[in-house]
Design a protein that fits this description.
With 95 residues, this protein is an all-beta fold. It has strands spanning 25-30, 37-42, 46-51, 56-62, 67-72, 79-83, 87-91. It has no helices and seven strands. It has a four-stranded antiparallel beta sheet, with no helix packed on it.
């Protein structure tokens, strides 16, 4: 957590590691309105939705190719994912 008055020294240690992807992560997107929720995509052809409060992947989605970008919609109930090969996937992670 970053203090309100700002950082006064270099951060050298992590507070938590999110372990799950088996290859390099490409992108990370925080949820628009839900605290401690983010999505990550990696070269391992998966998108994971993480509960950062406990450090676990709440959902994992597999694709035929890797996701090149992703974005939560303004309401925050859908995640749009662009898959390599010009394929777009739009889904509700809660289902």
């Amino acid at each position: 957590m970053i203090p309100e008055e700002g950082l006064t020294e270099h951060i050298k240690d992590d507070d938590m590691s999110l372990v799950g992807h088996t290859k390099k992560a490409l992108s990370v997107r925080w949820h628009n309105s839900v605290e401690n929720l983010l999505a990550s995509s990696a070269i391992d052809n998966t998108v994971r939705v993480w509960d950062v409060s406990c450090g676990k992947a709440a959902f994992t989605f597999s694709f035929a190719n890797c996701a090149t970008s992703m974005q939560w919609n303004p309401k925050g109930n859908l995640l749009g994912v662009m898959i390599k090969g010009s394929v777009m996937s739009l889904f509700d992670p809660r289902n």
